[in-house]
Amino acid sequence: MLNRSALILRYKEPAVRWINEADPNPDGPAITLEDVNEERTVYLIDEEVADTPEQLRKWVKANFRPLFESELGGWYVDPDLWPRKLTLKLFDEWFTVECHTMIFDTVGGPIEDDEI
């Protein structure tokens, strides 16, 4: 068991609307809520952050901007396509935060950072 917790951001409908409106694809179907939530990035955080909902919320308040930028950059590298103001209120409108505290390493070998 790892001494980390896993944080996952689930997209909400306003974020999906932004994805489709920021750089529309006239040749293909619109991206759906199901599409964006099919495969999510997992952010490992300190296990103590997830001890209580209040501690997790405090951590999210302090770290929402890099999380937000990571998610936006996954869709569009050009920040000109991003919303002008990345606020906690907008973050909350666009994402549901999920936290998982039981992280088991089933591989058993060393964990390596690929430095991406």
Please give the alpha-carbon distance between the first and last residues.
Answer: 24 Å
Residues in helices, as a percent range:
25-40%
Q: What is the number of independent domains?
A: 1
Oligomer: single chain
Please compute the radius of gyration using only Cα atoms. 16 Å
Beta percentage is 15-25%
The assigned structural class equals alpha+beta
Helix run count: 4
Largest sheet: 3 strands, antiparallel
Q: Based on DSSP secondary structure assignment, what is the total number of beta strands?
A: 3
- Overall average pLDDT: 93
N-to-C SSE string, H for helix and E for strand: EHHEHHE
Widest sheet, order of strands:
2-1-3
* Basic shape: globular
Q: Which stretches are low in confidence, meaning pLDDT under 50 for 5 or more residues running?
A: none
Descriptive notes:
This protein has 116 residues and is α+β, with helices and mostly antiparallel strands. It has one domain (4-100). It is built from four helices and three strands; from the N terminus they run βααβααβ. It has helices spanning 13-22, 33-36, 53-75, 88-94; strands at residues 4-11, 42-46, 95-100. It is globular.
Provide a quick synopsis of the model.
The protein is built from four helices and three strands; from the N terminus they run E-H-H-E-H-H-E. By secondary structure, it is of the alpha+beta class.
Structural topology:
Blueprint lengths: L3 E8 L1 H10 L10 H4 L5 E5 L6 H23 L12 H7 E6 L16
Antiparallel strand pairs: 1-2, 1-3
